[in-house]
Design a protein that fits this description.
heterodimer, A: mainly alpha, 8 helices, globular, B: 10 helices, elongated
Chain lengths: 232, 242
Amino acid sequence: MIGVEITVGQWLLVVLAGALLGLDAVSWPQAMASRPLVAGTLGGLLFGAPAAGFLAGAWLELVTSRHPPFGAARYPETGPAALIAGAAYALSASSTISGLVAATLAGWTIGWIGMHSIAALRSYNARLVADPRAFAGQPAEVARRHRRAIRMDAARAALLTGVLFVPAALGVRLLGSLDPGPLGTAWSPALAIAGLAGVAGIGARTLGSRRRRWVPFAVGAGAGLLVAWLVP
Amino acid sequence: MRPRRTDFVAAFLRSFAIQGSWNYRTLIGGGLAFALSPLLARIHAGDPVALGESIERHAAPFNAHPYLSPIAIGALARLEQEDEDPETLSRFRAALRAPLGALGDQAVWAGWRPVCAFGAILAHGLGVGPLTAALGFLVIYNVGHVALRAWGLRLGWRTGLSVGAALARTPLKQASTYLVPVGQALIGAVAALLIARAPGLRPEPWMAGLATGAALGGYLLPRPMAIVSLAGLFLACLIWVL
């Protein structure tokens, strides 16, 4: 029997944190508390394991690095997604690579669901503020409609977190607790390594947008290996 | 009437919520009108018709990087203060969009943010605790963030119509040319560190070769490798269960 113990109080705390982190990315105040490394750490902290949350957040930070919010681009929402990933990985108490990859993928999937919910909210916002005549030239009316859009964003993020947190936690717990078969023992770590290294390469390329800048990326990778070898 | 210091403070604070009503028709037009309102209310005090017209004008479609939007807020308020004609205001607004977007994307999203985020993860790899690393990221990143917004509002108000020339003289563009390679190097370092320390993994030489190949593949062939990399992560979970 696989399960996770979550009290109503903890669930409410996660939902509240999800609402605030959902707001942070776009609506207010864009302090980047919604970045995976912060939101993941917070998710882990809520269940007594900030280091586990940080690790899930760090993996998700790499996976989402290929989606910078340039212009009006669509990109996975990171706040509630990383919060759930960090909390789910902390709750799973997993020490296998499958648990960590499952938490990362849960965060990535929730991030894209979040993006679709943001797209729906943006269509709603158009009805709220896109006609300047609706303001009737009143600063108070501008503020009222703008604040309503922000409250709707908080409600959206809270709903997303409240609905997806428990299923994600159960899924990560299940994968993290399973013993692998011979195929999994042989191939899962290799696939996980290749997947993470691949998205890191894409992320570095996306930032630079020029091939000739592969040197800093390669030098950094070498330095990272050195740190891993020298620092226990 | 000239705006007071409190009006600038209100506009500055409201700029943090400029994307609050982001939509596909006017983008951050509603947010710009919201952030400009305290300044416009003072500039057009006692003239509700002029105030109403200016609110409508600035709620029209607009976009900019959110951290650089205070430059537009300051410059547009200056033009309203100088009673520029609506045609000039409209053309000026349109001309500001592209440079404020491109400059912010490169300097902040591709530069400052990855440097701070991956720097914090690397610091954790060097022994800094997870909470300290996450809080350190928030503090250091936001020193730059808040300073950029405050500087932008001052620059916009001080320079008005000539804000474009003033922007060209700022070190923002140059900063991004240094920050981006640092961010790329940090991504490489963090990827290597996370792979080497993946839970339950016994590092072997062939794994380093595989990771190097995948990373270079991702860098040189980003589109096909995006699918291959994510499929790899999904398959890692699927095969584990089999």
